[in-house]
Amino acid sequence: MRTFDYSILKNENWDSEVLGLVAQIHEYKGRQELYLRQKPEKLDKLVELAKIQSTEASNELEGIRTTNTRLKQLVADKTTPKNRDEEEIMGYRDVLNTIHESYEYIPIRANYILQLHRDLYQYSEKSIGGSFKSTQNYISAVDAEGHEFVLFTPLAPYETPAAIASICESCNRVMEAQEVDALVLIPVFVHDFLCIHPFLDGNGRMSRLLTTLLLYRAGYVIGRYISLESKIAKNKGLYYEVLETCQRGWHENKEDSVPFIKYLLRTILAAYRDFEDRVDLVGEKLPAVELVRRAVYGKIGRFTKSDIMELCPTIGKTSVESSIKALVDSGALMKHGFGPATFYTRSDAQ
Q1: Per-residue pLDDT for 281 more than 80?
Q2: Structural contact between residues 305 and 320, judged by C-beta atoms closer than 8 angstroms
Q3: How far apart are CA 215 and CA 210, in angstroms?
Q4: Are residues 297 and 243 in the same domain?
Q5: Over the stretch 11-46, which tens digit does the pLDDT of each residue have?
Q6: Domain of 317: which CATH number?
Q7: What are the distances in angstroms from CA 132 to CA 111, 113, 136, 160, 171?
């Protein structure tokens, strides 16, 4: 039978890659704290962009979508949902805002997880919000011929409440005692949560919200400024592949969680690196075309208008478009393709 005791992690001999990733994140965290003290008011644009991207990406991973315009309006609370997808997007937005604003007061306990799940579905007609699963669920995939098959069978409904209580209790105990680095503990907790799969729906979104919450509570506030969900969505194939690998032997306490630990640490580290790139641009008082020039000359390979807008959140879409056109006209950038397929490369890459 599956048991949960995170104190055993202190006896693990982590390889050099895990230790190196943890050390780099600690270093970036220290530098971020310095940035936040020096330029707090200049980072608001990063917060707004991260909220939009996190809400979009986490829902997109579950096939929940709306248009870009509607998404921005929903996140800014300037409209009401028109359909079931938008209802769930609104719920995610609210839970994410709650975590951003009140993470110090949201303990890692089963009843709080249930309340966050309730709020995820507060706009939905579904009556599953705030309740653990009542029937067995399965993690499935589709083969090349289009046939669905079961990848993993989570815990049974009758085992679920005790299991969630157990991972919360063990996580809190180990975190409080500082027996294990939080950057190692958090991925293990999130992986166990996904293997338990406590809800009939919303498990993936809840796991990503809990990742942000746990990181905030441990002092890693990177998700406030850079969307971790967006980074996961851009590399979702690897995300699902790693989860599948780490599920093997889970019921017998024989799983290898290291691949998921490394995956999440790499994602966090990439977010910290992006933060430093973007905060330098946010702090510069330059004409729009010079901000865009600096942004694109920090890119390698192909990139899109959306990529540049992410790097230049202090200037609007029209300014980004006109700046890109000016750089293309001057020969600094090369334009490829047409319409939605358009992308750009630096001319010095030719």
Answers
A1: no
A2: yes
A3: 8
A4: no
A5: 999 999 999 999 999 999 999 998 888 777 778 888
A6: 1.10.10.10
A7: 11, 10, 11, 7, 20
**Helical H segments across 235-316, by residue range:** 236-247, 258-283, 288-296, 305-311
Range of the domain at 42: 7-280
Q: Which of 196, 280, 329, 104 lies closest to 344, judged by CA?
A: 329
> Same domain, yes or no, for 269 and 222?
yes
59 found inside a domain: yes
Give the residue from 258, 280, 302 where a domain finishes. 280
Backbone φ and ψ for 108, nearest 5 degrees, come out as -85, 85
Q: Is residue 273 part of a domain?
A: yes
pLDDT for 90 beyond 90: yes
Letter for the amino acid at 48? E
132 shares a domain with 87: yes
Burial class from Cβ neighbours inside 10 Å (0-12, 13-18, 19+) for residue 228 reads buried
Long-range Cβ contact pairs of 81-84 (< 8 A, separation 24 or more): 81/123, 84/124, 84/125
- Low-confidence winner among 106-110, 124-128, 256-260 (lowest mean pLDDT): 124-128
pLDDT at residue 288, as a whole number: 85
* pLDDT grade for 284, boundaries at 50, 70 and 90: low
